[in-house]
Amino acid sequence: MKISIIIPVYNEVNVIPMVLDRVMKAALPAGCEKEIIIVDDGSTDGTSEILDRYHGLVAIHHSVENFGKGAAIRIGIRKATGDIVLIQDGDLEYDPNDYLKVLQPIVDGQATVVYGSRFMGNLEGMKFANWLANKILTTTTNILYTCSITDEATAYKAFRIDVLRAMRLRCLRFEFCPEVTAKVRRLGHPIHEVPIKYNARGILEGKKIRWQDGFHAMWTLVKYRFTPLEQPAAEAKIAQGTSSAA
């Protein structure tokens, strides 16, 4: 199997070399190969120039600065050629050594969607406000979508590619997580969880999500519970203005 690892990144010049080093070295389940797709969301701090020095990965540069994490992930999904898609943040909060745990249930045919749960694993440094927001969003998800997950907003999400391509995503920013969770459940897929490690960072260290995004996430969960599911369609609009370099 081929694993497409999608990394949305914006202004991560200080950490992206370490992230890529860890991603490249991370072990995969037996018989799997990596495809690394980095979508640079119009970085202005030198991140773009660093990415162009790497070989063996696909770097996609967006012409619009900070168009949004969700838009970057959508572009990455369209470019993916793997059997499984895994989302990796462009910072050091998550440990690529957890790839084995996240991917194995899909490789073994036991799951179609796997979330790496921070609350089942080793959680370090999360502020109480973020902890509370995560708990509220997760509880809302469980009520609205009849499931029993522990971490809706985790970045480590893995999907069989046909699951993603059976839905039409519209997210632009951080609402990727609630939108994809809602549509996965609306399509009838169980969400399998595995424990992962997590080391939180703060705003001064480059964390970009803000309290307003929590309200947007809540609205997204409610909206897609009652909105009719759309058929997937080509997303040419966000792909315009991008260029690829292998």
Topology:
Elements: E1 2-9, H1 16-25, E2 33-40, H2 47-51, E3 58-62, H3 69-79, E4 84-87, H4 99-107, E5 113-124, H5 128-145, E6 157-160, H6 161-164, H7 176-186, E7 192-199, H8 211-226, H9 236-239, E8 242-245
Parallel strand pairs: 1-2, 1-4, 2-3, 5-7
Antiparallel strand pairs: 3-8, 4-6, 5-6
Helix pairs in contact: 5-8, 7-8
- Give the number of domains: 1
- Under CATH at level 1, the class stands as Alpha Beta
Tally of DSSP helical segments: 9
Under CATH, the topology can be stated as: Spore Coat Polysaccharide Biosynthesis Protein SpsA, Chain A
N-to-C CA distance: 21 Å
- What portion of residues is helical? 25-40%
CATH homology superfamily name:
Spore Coat Polysaccharide Biosynthesis Protein SpsA, Chain A
| Strand residue content | 15-25%
Q: Order of strands across the biggest sheet? A: 7-5-6-4-1-2-3-8
Mass-distribution shape: globular
Q: Which parts are unreliable, with pLDDT below 50 for 5 consecutive residues or more?
A: 234-241
Mean pLDDT: 89
Summarize this structure briefly.
By secondary structure, the chain is an alpha/beta fold. It contains 9 helices and 8 strands. The chain has one domain (2-230): Alpha-Beta Complex (Spore Coat Polysaccharide Biosynthesis Protein SpsA, Chain A), CATH 3.90.550.
Give a structural overview:
The protein is an alpha/beta fold and 246 residues long. It has a single domain, classed as Spore Coat Polysaccharide Biosynthesis Protein SpsA, Chain A. Helix content is 36%, strand content 22%. An 8-stranded mixed beta sheet has the order 7-5-6-4-1-2-3-8, with helices on both faces. Helix 5 (128-145) runs parallel beside helix 8 (211-226) and helix 7 packs parallel to helix 8. The protein is globular and about 45 Å long. The chain starts with a strand and ends with a strand. The model is unreliable at 234-241 (pLDDT under 50).
